[in-house]
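For reproducibility, we list the full input for the adenosine-5'-triphosphate complex.
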Amino acid sequence: MASLLLRRHRKASAFGISRILQGDMELIRLPMEMNFEAFLSVGIRMRRYSSGQSGSNFDFTDLTCPHMWYPTARRKKRKVFLHVGPTNSGKTYHALKRLESSASGIYCGPLRLLAWEVAKRMNKAKVPCDLITGQERDEVDGARHKAVTVEMADVASHYHCAVIDEIQMLGCKARGFSFTRALLGIAADELHLCGDVAAVPLIQEMLKVTDDHVEVQSYERLSPLVPLKVPLGSFSNIKTGDCIVTFSRQKIYKFKMGESIFALWFMGHCHQRLGQDRLQAMMFNDETSEFDVLVASDAIGMGLNLNISRIIFSSMKKFDGAEMRELTVPEIKQIGGRAGRYGSKFPVGEVTCLDANDLPLLHSSLAAPSPILEQAGLLPSFDLLYMYSRLHPNCGFYQILEHFLENAKLSENYFISNCEDILKVAAVVDQLPLGMHDKYLFCVR
Ligand SMILES: Nc1ncnc2c1ncn2[C@@H]1O[C@H](COP(=O)(O)OP(=O)(O)OP(=O)(O)O)[C@@H](O)[C@H]1O
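The corresponding predicted structure, in tokenized form, follows.
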């Protein structure tokens, strides 16, 4: 635990510095820099201060207008394009074409591997593009484009074009708040959102107050996806192009033992050494490599384009941090949709399960629409938390955060992301000799 924390500490400090270099007004402001100007980033709150109210009368826990936390974006009338449709329908392709032809831009994706794929594609097309993730910063001379993981989205700079991929992850319990921040905060003339149609009503509702122009563009799947009537049954039935999806690291290793039959490669969720996931994806996609079967975690569902012919669910249940539960319709569709990607080696995708008992859930889920997204994740910005802490000078960070989250007021479009996990981290980092900003970063990253 101690070594984990030390590693995380170093990462958070490096991250803090990178945010400062990036000029992210919401996250970089260190406590000692807090001044009157800092209130500007909490928008409408300024008015109450300038009308003479004292800080103690002010309710910093009021999170009902999160769009006002991003003054740079609010000064623009953004054109927002919602690219929606099933998996493998070309949503991201079209958004990226737009990004590529824009004078400046940013791509925000849910995975490091996707950010890397986009940076590679842009640089290959002679559009210099930086790669920025929680772990790396690869800057290219003269770049006016960035490909980032969504947590690293920059809400202080101006862009001609921005893309947020897998936007339905607004509703994700753990990471939804980062998508909300990018959606409300990126100051781009054109903002392209790619994802499931189930996110449309919520996004339209969230953007009613931003004065943005919103347009929906619908897509159809580009190649067929066939749910099979027979299960895999036995690993002796595995063939080239198969991808076994599993939900635990132990199982990934267990399946890897099948190496005597086929060369297996695996893609873990977040346990990869830097660059290892890239190597694995490249080798799997490389027809000349010896790796032709993939064992992957459910992270594969977040928009990856790999040469997969058949997706095999090893189980339809996963432990989500709190309980063992059945996979949801969107999860099954997202993961299943990795098979038979347009332009890949396999023009038709197939999906099945290891166990015959799981087939009914697979079939019904692939045929069902995703449930409409009701709420987006939200967390208080550092500014708000810091100002709140000034009212409680004798409380530690954990107490401040706990109190804040308990008292937070939200509009019906939002929920507070992952409180329990965040408070657990806050309890640990509060014991460390860190500034409040670093402690905040530990909790939200
Ligand atoms: N018009 C096109 N010409 C060439 N290739 C295309 C075209 N449209 C899509 N593709 C390719 O098809 C694959 C799927 O497209 P894309 O990733 O844009 O789909 P998506 O709808 O965003 O998928 P998902 O929701 O599953 O992430 C990609 O490899 C993409 O490059």
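The CA atoms of residues 379 and 416 lie 6 Å apart. The longest strand covers residues 187-195. Both points were considered when choosing residues for closer inspection.
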